[in-house]
Structure formats: structure tokens, C-alpha cells
Amino acid sequence: MFWRAPDGSLWNTSWDNGRYWEATQISKGPMASPPSPVCGLKAGQVDVFWKAPDGSLWDTWYDGSVWADKEIYRFPQRVPRAVKWTGPVTKNPDGAWLQQILAGPLPDDVRFVTALEPFKQGGYGLVDFRMYYGGDNAHATIRATRNFDGSGVFKTLDNAPITNITVREEDKYGVTDVSFTANGYESGWIAHSGAESRSFKNVLPPNSILVGVQAKAQGGYGIVDLNFAYVSDTA
């Protein structure tokens, strides 16, 4: 019997030679769907198919001696849902809004965001922002402000789609850090830049997935506000 654990891993519960039931983790996953076992693709082999959080299709198989994983269909998949925007998060009146950026190769071919890279500059907080998408975060969006003075800090959680964002702000210095949620886990602060006057927690609505960002920048002083694009995970 195959089943998905709360942490997304794949488990097998089997009857051991008529003596007792034994549960074994056969893949760390993480899974985003129930397992679909199939027998008979090869003699003596059992295959269990499942979907990863980034939409890719995986096969966990047993060849008679060991369990192994293999990705058999590569993300990315299109997001066939209406894109919405959160609106300004900090509502800082200074600065100017820049280009709205969506993850994906084309405006009508949007993908789930699976990693973030905020750029920090000592004394100024965040000065730029970039998102990643696709299998193994293979694709990067353009940078939100094109401020190339800062250093980037990359963060992903098992390449899982990002389902919420928390923004940290320091008065007079703008946005100083961000954290995110993916696959039920918290990233913690990514850039570790600046102090905190206040934070804006979980700016995306429930059951949402991040697909884009827009930055508001004040000259060469960095990002003072953020606007996030998302799609509903239940649509």
C-alpha cells in the first residue's frame, strides 16, 4: 500500500511474510498528488507515479532490490488561471513603480515561481529582486530594478512553488528583507539585511501561488515597496 505522508514523502506499507505490517519511506518527494502504483511495466518491477510541487511527473520504482526515483516529465507547465496582483504591500509614498514582471517566457505563458533572489546593499536594504521558475529553477526573470550595486542571495525550498510572502520594512530605509512559504515550510529571512520596524506577513491570499513581482524604487536608495502577482491554487 502506497501513501503520501504529511511532509510530502512517499511511503510503502507492506505485510511482511504474514507476520506484521511494516512502513518504509521509499522517496523523500516532495509529492503534490496521491501516488499511482503500476505493476508489470517490466518483469518483477513496481512503478509508483506521482506529481511534484513544480508540476513535473516522477516515477519511484522497485527493481527487486532497491527503490529509486526518476523525473519522467519536466516542468514547466503553463498556468491556466487568471493572474491577480496584491497591490502595494508597505504603501510607502516615496519612489516610483517599475515594470510588472511575470515568471515565464511570454506574458500569456506564466509559470509558478519556485525560488527568489533578493539583492542587498549594505546600509540600503534591498536594491533589486529576481525570481526563478522551471525544473531545478533553470529559468530566471529579468531583475526588477536593474540596480546592479547589490549582491544576490538565492533561496528555494525543494524547488516547490511559493505560496506566500512576508515582507520586512525599516522606516526611512524601505524594504530590507523577504521570506516565503513553499510546500508548507518557511524559508526564514533570506537577505538578513537591515533592521525591522514592521513586517507584513502572508501578503498573498490563502491558496495562492506566486507568479510575478513589481518593485517600487527610490532613486539609488533601493526598494521601498513591492507588488506581487499570484494565481489561485484552487481555480
Folded structure, characterized:
- The radius of gyration is 21 Å and the shape is elongated.
- It has 2 domains: 2-73, no CATH class; 84-232, Vitelline Membrane Outer Layer Protein I, subunit A, CATH 2.100.10.
- The relative contact order is 0.17.
- With 235 residues, it is mostly beta strands.
- 0% of the residues lie in helices and 49% in strands.
- The chain has strands at 2-4, 10-16, 20-27, 36-39, 46-51, 57-62, 67-73, 84-85, 96-97, 101-102, 113-121, 125-133, 139-140, 151-152, 155-156, 162-170, 174-182, 185-186, 198-200, 208-217, 223-232.
- The mean pLDDT is 86.
Instruction: Please report the total strand number as a whole number.
Output: 21
* Strand portion: over 45%
Judged by helices, strands and strand pairing, the structural class is mainly beta
Give the N-terminus to C-terminus distance in angstroms. 31 Å
Q: What is the CATH topology descriptor of the largest domain?
A: Vitelline Membrane Outer Layer Protein I, subunit A
CATH class wording of the largest domain? Mainly Beta
List the helices and strands in order.
EEEEEEEEEEEEEEEEEEEEE
Radius of gyration, whole Å: 21 Å
CATH superfamily of the largest domain: Vitelline membrane outer layer protein I (VOMI)
Please, how many helices?
0
